[in-house]
């Protein structure tokens, strides 16, 4: 077995990368394509790695390769290694961007209907040297991206800002849910609606895998022994509203949706106040001065 110091001196990240891709594809041709090389240098690096480690990593035949026990062990170690490398790269980039005054901001598309555009303009006027980089992503993706330091701040709705330890959240807008339907819908004649009045309605809601808003509404109904009849779920707000505008379904959306010029849609307030405001989510321990300035300028009150 080669000495540990000798191995570390000669072992390269490229060797491990080649091994890792081959361990995933189990095929030299496919691995070479993914690495954008030919099979010859790939085969050479694998043999070099096996010689350096003093173990056989693959069992080869004319078409495919299989991992040995040692190969499986190295694949598991590479899983962890490349996650650490990726995290380190993102972390270094975040530090560099913070120094340049760059704020990576995740958001749901409906944030603009809650006044995000006006706030961005006011923020850039107040801090002309700061740069905002917008990244559209659903709430679950944003939480992961904040934890992995791919974004500094995420913008989500109230339901997705609950129970997010170790992250923190800050309220940005004061909103509640309203009922949206076509102007011809029988419920459209009301000036205010209770959840009980929606007992027989058919709902189109946001997809529950991407956002907790729908579950928040459903839980509020269950508290009153109501079970909403959900016939459609959508990811994008524009698609949801377009469907409601051409169907007999109703939906529950944040009150700021009424700020957008929807054709043939009427918005009716709910008697029950169900929170739907926009919240910033972030990692308090790593929040850059630029990101902190953005959140503080927009935010109203801390939410623990």
UniProtKB/TrEMBL annotation:
One of its GO terms (molecular function) is DNA binding. Gene3D superfamilies: Periplasmic binding protein-like II (3.40.190.10), Winged helix-like DNA-binding domain superfamily/Winged helix DNA-binding domain (1.10.10.10). InterPro entries: LysR_HTH_N, LysR_subst-bd, WH-like_DNA-bd_sf, WH_DNA-bd_sf. GO terms for cellular component: protein-DNA complex. Keywords: DNA-binding, Transcription, Transcription regulation. Residues 11-68 form the HTH lysR-type domain. Pfam families: HTH_1, LysR_substrate. It comes from the Bacteria. Belongs to the LysR transcriptional regulatory family. This is Transcriptional regulator, LysR family. It comes from Ferrimonas balearica (strain DSM 9799 / CCM 4581 / KCTC 23876 / PAT). The lineage of its organism: Bacteria, Pseudomonadati, Pseudomonadota, Gammaproteobacteria, Alteromonadales.
